[in-house]
Amino acid sequence: MKRRKFVTAAAASSLVSPLAFGATRSQMEDDHEIYDLSTYELTFASNRQALLDYLNQTKAPFVKKKGARSFMMFMEVGDPEPTRLWTLTTYPDLVSYHHVIASPAQAQLQAQSEAYAKAGQTYNRISSSLCYAFEGLKQMKDPIANAQLFELRIYEGVNEDAVHRKIKMFNQEELDLFYRVDLNPIFFGRMVVGPYIPSLVYMLNFRDMDHREAAWKDFLAHPEWDNMKVKPEYARTVSNIRRIFLKPL
Q: Going by C-beta distance under 8 Å and a sequence separation of 6 or more, which residues neighbour residue 213?
């Protein structure tokens, strides 16, 4: 019985410590941000306000107190089924993320979640991904003025080499062009935990859909993109693209 308790404790420790996965202390404390991108799939006719109250009044203050830099919430544009609420939590490094998930106060957070749930089941499951910021954009950018449309893009690769080559393309050439054609980034990151590995994830923001369409049109017509996309070192880097339009809450 004692051995079973010891094994269980050891397993739990490995789940909450990045060091258990081979990360060094210097890697945990580098200046690349960590992005926790989570989705709450809402139940049919759920009490959405109860979930929003929990996230605004309990979850956001908790993660910020423990070291998170920001906590943003979004809903998908249109009327998708099932409805999904998205959160983006930004941590300065793995140490800060570890402080949140390993905190004894995490139990209090769960208790508050249960209290809000008494108003009725609000979501089916939470799906989360962790992303590690690009070298070319180590810290998240603030949204532009009057940003009402956020575009989340996930680029899957056939293997890790393909994703690394696409990341190199962004770091060395493509990201700079994004700025010049008004494709305003929020963050760029490599997915290190999540359902679409190997992949990279990034988010852009715009005033509205017209602003978005004009910026992408300028990008696709730009001669630098024409030269960039045919370089052999960037060939076959993206096997699938997932795109989600979001509005801020």
A: none
- 141, 104 Cβ separation under 8 angstroms: no
Tell me if 58 sits within 8 A of 112, measured CB to CB.
yes
Fold of 24-132: Alpha-Beta Plaits (3.30.70)
CATH 3.30.70.100 positions along the chain are 24-132, 134-243
Please tell me the pTM assigned to this model.
Answer: 0.85
Residue in the structure block whose two tokens are 């080559």: 165
Q: Give percent above pLDDT 90 in the chain.
A: 65
Query: Which class is 134-243 in CATH?
Result: alpha beta
| CA 163 – CA 191 distance, rounded (Å) | 10
pLDDT tens readout for residues 145-185:
999 999 999 999 999 999 999 999 999 999 999 999 999 99
